[in-house]
Amino acid sequence: MFKQMPVVDKRRPVGISSMRTRFFLIFGAALASAELCIVPKNQVIPCGLAGFTCSAGGDSNDGSTNKQNCEGKGGQWTPYSCPDANSYLSTQSPELKEILVGWWRGKCCESPTPDPPDGTMCHDPETELNGVAPAGFSCIKDSEPIGDSNDFTTTEASCTSAGGAWVPYNCQNAQNYYNSISESQGYFACWWAFKCCVPVASPTSSPVKPPIKSGPGPSPAPTKNPTNLSPTPQPSDRSYCTRDDAICWPTDAELNDLDTQIRGKVMSVPADGSTYGVCFDQGDDAFKLTEAGNGLCYQYHDCRYQFCRAESGENDLQLPGVIVQPFDADDASKALKFASDHNMAVTIKTSGHSFMGSSTGKDTLQIVTTELDENDETKLLPANSWSNSCPSTGPVKHVLRAGGGSFWKQGYLAAGFGVNVVGGGALSVSVAGGWLQGGGLSAMTPTHGLGVDNVLAFDVVLADGSLVVADECSHPDLFWALRGGGGGTFGVVTKIHYRAHSNPTNSRYVACRVSFQSSDNTIRESMTDAWIDFMVDKSATGIDRRWGGYW
């Protein structure tokens, strides 16, 4: 019914096609309950991903092998499951078992995992269904499922290229499907258990949805597949995972696995701030602060701002828990899925100039866009070579294409002196991040409008992992929302197309700064009021449009 995992190299665990028969003999009776979320204790996660094996030698868990160097030596990079790993483990010597258990225990056992005796790997408390939580996406072609987002191999891109539709379903849909089948229940249950099952409520715990059970009377008709959507998935009432919650917080093994799946970088951030010293070393150099610490550093080594600091009296920096630096949209998609799987809050950051702290947050998975490949493709396109998706719209004369993690220093240099571009006042401010998505105020605004008036299209990875292009005619609601809704609110922007303006006279803009320096607050306030009155009076009487600025 769903796509199967490929058979792997015989030197490593076998593929899923041979695993299923063996698995049902081991787990079938224990998982025969009509309730999806009754997971047996001390059992291997049936459909967990244990790792990837390279046919040219090596494994994703060995600390030196990854997809790139595997394919570089002509190998095939193939996933294998936890039951396959467990089966392979049983054939090895005690010395090798000790190593392999270290590879797989964190990935293949339900959390939290105590240190078990030899031969057992897993433990999980009893749980109950949260029916409205998202369970996954099914790839539907000709009214039949041909793949699922939980099967390790199917993605939205592979689904659409096969002519399928990428359809979301929730945990109640998954439960209904589970009830309708007599075989493979254990295999499919483990797809959904960690997403759909929450600890059984106690009088002191946060409220959770009650378990959904069949009432008296005839059983409901079985569903054809889990995408027969009954209510639209709604946000869970559970709070986000924090690093002090061992049940949901990702293990080192899971973070290593994410690192092997993406081209970019993954970094775990210690809660004690011990890695932040490199940020203090950069002083107040905005560019160095952006480059240092894999995106960890604040522009100001302070956390006075909302969300960055949980309580106003705290002195620590309230750092994110995990930093991911994606190289492309696929990396960003996998990072968002990882955050969703672990119920982690997500923050998105380029230069970190958000003084409200919206580009960082305690214990978040922080996506830092400074390493995107698209940043190196920032350039002014040939005249009249680009147009949006609107069929009645002709080409735009001057268009700047900019990567989602590029800075205005790159943007201005790429544009050159032949055009005028509405941009940020500081060269270290990002072109496509919080400056633009928050409005985009510029000294050129009186002449050419705000940044949001000049952006023509966004390439953006949404929370469900899909990459879309939003412009006036394609996803127009999203295009409207991205123009002022705040940086990182609606997705990870990987690229923009941005209007530049003809500059036939090769004119220049000159910046000047007005500041008031006095230790006497009364004098400072008086000068500030006088300056504001002056600007208001001049604006009301028609200030020359060549003047622009912001407070």
The strand count comes to 18
Radius of gyration (Å): 27 Å
Q: Round the mean pLDDT to the nearest integer and report it.
A: 75
Strand order of the largest sheet: 12-13-17-15-16
Number of helices: 17
**Fraction of residues in helix:** 25-40%
| Biggest sheet details | 5 strands, antiparallel
Provide the low-confidence segments as ranges.
1-42, 111-125, 200-225, 227-238, 310-314
- Report the sheet-strand fraction: 5-15%
Cα end-to-end separation: 61 Å
Note the overall shape: globular
Q: Helix/strand-derived class?
A: alpha+beta
Can you give me a brief rundown of this structure?
Helix content is 27%, strand content 15%.
Commentary on this structure:
It is a single chain. Helices cover 27% and strands 15% of the residues. The protein has 17 helices and 18 strands. The strands form six sheets. The chain has a five-stranded antiparallel β-sheet with strand order 12-13-17-15-16. Helix 3 (82-89) packs antiparallel against helix 4. The longest helix is centred in the last third of the chain and has 20 residues, at 521-540. The radius of gyration is 27 Å and the shape is globular. Residues 1-42, 111-125, 200-225, 227-238 and 310-314 have low confidence and may be disordered.
